[in-house]
């Protein structure tokens, strides 16, 4: 009895609805294209929200396409650039579960297969509709005998497959929820990275803002150790929308407040603030989850800088009204959170480690006293773990160690590293 993962394509594996995108390609020179686009999108949304049968929606959309094989080639190129970010970074999951992942979609194999097979998904595990073409290569319809072209098609298909084991469904639309409603799958995860449909979210077992969250909940192989949507990013003061957009794209849970209060800071993993709204040393002493501060302005209070360092909290700042800080600050914050880079910090020693593939990266921040690195490496040696890269930098207050180790470790390793005396902070990046 195994486990199977049924994954939708449109607005789940990719950020877009492929038939809508195909229409924009095939109708770009049509004089009435905007009106037709709106019709196609309306049919898409109606079926995804359960207001129109999928069969009727599909038939109406295909009639409006006026597409051919050349348009499909262009669509595939476009879709490859539109894979959902959390899917594209979690290739490790698809590689290690190639037999258990199934793409089940009301879309079409002609554009799905070229996109998803690049992620170790087997062609025989891709279930979707197929177009019918005339001799000139124009799309004239689709195979109506395919259950996925019919209302309740995913349910019909899964009954035919008769998979033996626990089945988990991931999707954004009503047809995905129908699998749960039918009793054929164990849990349904409403995927909201690209679009959130209220009628689907309300009926889901879980809402997963990214594939990272799904993999984390189910303890599956993943690119990052902790989903960004679980990390609160506290925003206080004048922070430009372009800067916030970068953080939102990364998936952080953005929280706006008028001032910095201790209860807000205690929940936050990231703080973005301006020069007029900075935390006090006392607030930082109680901010156990806080990892990084990005200040759009200068942090001139030495006690704030030193207290943050003592607490293992890195600070990036930049002169007030510097036109570059809208881009500079979020990029520095993201580089630290994703790869452990500390370059240009005002309170941490400088380190820019290269990314190492096929390894796990661990960060250990400790008081700058002799012997800590030896204790870290003793833990790895005791568990027969191979170090593929290690970096240590210090300042007068802290030691900052990044260790890249070969894949494969258990929770005991992490617990022992956290328990080393004089440890300030420890975390697994990926």
TrEMBL record:
Catalytic activity: O-phospho-D-serine + H2O = D-serine + phosphate; O-phospho-L-serine + H2O = L-serine + phosphate
Enzyme class of the recorded protein, top EC level: hydrolase
GO cellular component terms, A-Z: cytoplasm
Gene3D superfamilies: 3.30.70.260, HAD superfamily/HAD-like, NAD(P)-binding Rossmann-like Domain, Phosphoserine phosphatase, domain 2
Stored Pfam families: ACT_AHAS_ss
Annotated ranges, domain ACT: 361-430
E.C. no: 3.1.3.3
Pathway info: Amino-acid biosynthesis; L-serine biosynthesis; L-serine from 3-phospho-D-glycerate: step 3/3
Keywords noted in UniProt: Amino-acid biosynthesis, Hydrolase, Magnesium, Metal-binding, Serine biosynthesis
Cofactor: Mg(2+)
Magnesium found in the keyword field: yes
GO molecular function: L-phosphoserine phosphatase activity; magnesium ion binding
A single BP term in Gene Ontology: L-serine biosynthetic process
Family matches, as NCBIfam families: HAD-SF-IB
PANTHER family: PHOSPHOSERINE PHOSPHATASE (PTHR43344)
Protein name: phosphoserine phosphatase
């Amino acid at each position: 009895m195994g486990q199977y993962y049924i994954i939708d394509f449109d607005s789940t594996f990719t950020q877009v609805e492929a038939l809508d995108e195909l229409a924009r390609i095939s109708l770009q020179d049509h004089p009435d294209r905007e009106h037709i686009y709106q019709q196609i999108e309306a049919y898409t949304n109606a079926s995804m929200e359960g207001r129109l049968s999928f069969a009727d929606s599909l038939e109406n959309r295909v009639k409006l396409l006026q597409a051919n094989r050349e348009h499909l080639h262009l669509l595939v190129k476009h879709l490859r650039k539109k894979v959902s970010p959390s899917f594209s970074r979690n290739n490790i999951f698809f590689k290690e579960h190639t037999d258990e992942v199934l793409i089940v979609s009301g879309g079409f194999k002609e554009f799905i297969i070229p996109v998803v097979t690049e992620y170790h998904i087997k062609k025989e595990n891709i279930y979707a509709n197929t177009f019918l073409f005339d001799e000139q290569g124009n799309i004239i319809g689709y195979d109506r005998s395919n259950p996925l072209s019919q209302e309740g098609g995913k349910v019909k298909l899964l009954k035919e497959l008769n998979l033996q084991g626990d089945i988990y469904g991931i999707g954004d639309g009503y047809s995905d929820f129908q699998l749960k409603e039918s009793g054929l799958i164990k849990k349904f995860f409403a995927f909201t990275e690209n679009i959130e449909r209220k009628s689907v979210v309300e009926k889901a077992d879980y809402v997963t803002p990214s594939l990272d969250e799904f993999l984390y909940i189910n303890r599956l192989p993943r690119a990052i150790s902790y989903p960004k949507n679980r990390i609160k990013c506290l925003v206080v003061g004048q922070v430009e929308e372009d800067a916030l957009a970068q953080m939102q794209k990364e998936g952080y849970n953005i929280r706006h407040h008028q001032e910095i209060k201790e209860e807000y800071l205690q929940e936050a993993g990231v703080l973005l603030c301006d020069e007029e709204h900075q935390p006090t040393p006392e607030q930082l002493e109680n901010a156990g989850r806080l990892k990084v501060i990005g200040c759009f302005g200068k942090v001139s209070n030495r006690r704030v800088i030193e207290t943050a360092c003592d607490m293992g909290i890195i600070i990036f700042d930049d002169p007030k009204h510097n036109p570059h800080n809208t881009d500079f600050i979020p990029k520095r914050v993201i580089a630290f959170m994703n790869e452990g880079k500390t370059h240009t910090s005002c309170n941490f020693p400088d380190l820019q480690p290269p990314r190492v593939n096929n390894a796990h990266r661990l960060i250990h921040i400790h008081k700058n006293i002799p012997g800590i690195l030896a204790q870290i490496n003793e833990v790895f040696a005791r568990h027969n773990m191979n170090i593929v890269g290690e970096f240590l930098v210090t300042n007068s207050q802290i030691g900052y160690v990044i260790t890249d180790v070969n894949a494969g470790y258990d929770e005991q390793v992490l617990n022992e590293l956290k328990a080393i005396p004089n440890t300030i902070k420890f975390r697994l990046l990926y």
